[in-house]
Q: What sequence folds into this?
């Protein structure tokens, strides 16, 4: 085999490896953020821990919509003080002021970043797509806790306040909802 063929084969191998890594990067980054809390990514848990500390932490709630999303979206309660390890429940409210059904999905994060891996959600509206009918208002719960391990983390132990932020984005209506929205008024089968 001459040198040109060897070089071409090595370059083709590099291209295959680079393409493989690019496809693996997104799921790997998502996994890394969930495990470490990097970038304010929260944890997901089945239940709150058995240990509840006497130490408290202030939780702030923030809600917004992306450009073009017609909903009104806000936290019902702006702040809450919880004991570390305690299961807490907060609510956000969404209202569809339009004359059409709208589907939405929420993205979320917490700040400061040092708290991300210690803020765990048990149940959240952000896990599923939400559909609001014209004029509909709903309150959506978030069940969460702050992991007691935060008090032993070299950065986390200094966190006194955590902000949980959600942003709702409009998404295409599910097929069933889209078909209902497309039917002319008064058309009853």
A:
């Amino acid at each position: 085999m001459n040198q040109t063929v060897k070089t071409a084969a090595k370059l083709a191998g590099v291209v295959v490896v680079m393409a493989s890594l690019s496809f693996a990067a997104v799921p790997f980054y998502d996994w890394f953020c969930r495990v470490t809390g990097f970038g304010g990514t929260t944890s997901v848990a089945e239940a709150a821990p058995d240990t509840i500390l006497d130490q408290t932490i202030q939780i702030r709630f923030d809600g917004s919509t992306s450009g073009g999303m017609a909903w009104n979206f806000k936290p019902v309660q702006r702040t809450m003080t919880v004991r570390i390890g305690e299961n807490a429940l907060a609510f956000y409210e969404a209202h569809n002021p339009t004359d059409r059904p709208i589907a939405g999905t929420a993205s979320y994060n917490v700040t400061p970043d040092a708290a991300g891996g210690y803020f765990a959600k048990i149940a959240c509206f952000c896990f599923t797509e939400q559909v609001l009918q014209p004029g509909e208002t709903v309150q959506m719960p978030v069940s969460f806790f702050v992991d007691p391990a935060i008090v032993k983390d070299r950065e986390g132990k200094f966190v006194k306040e955590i902000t949980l932020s959600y942003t709702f984005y409009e998404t295409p209506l599910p097929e069933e909802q889209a078909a209902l929205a497309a039917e002319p008024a008064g058309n009853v089968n």
The longest strand covers residues 161-171. The helical segments are 3-36, 175-182.
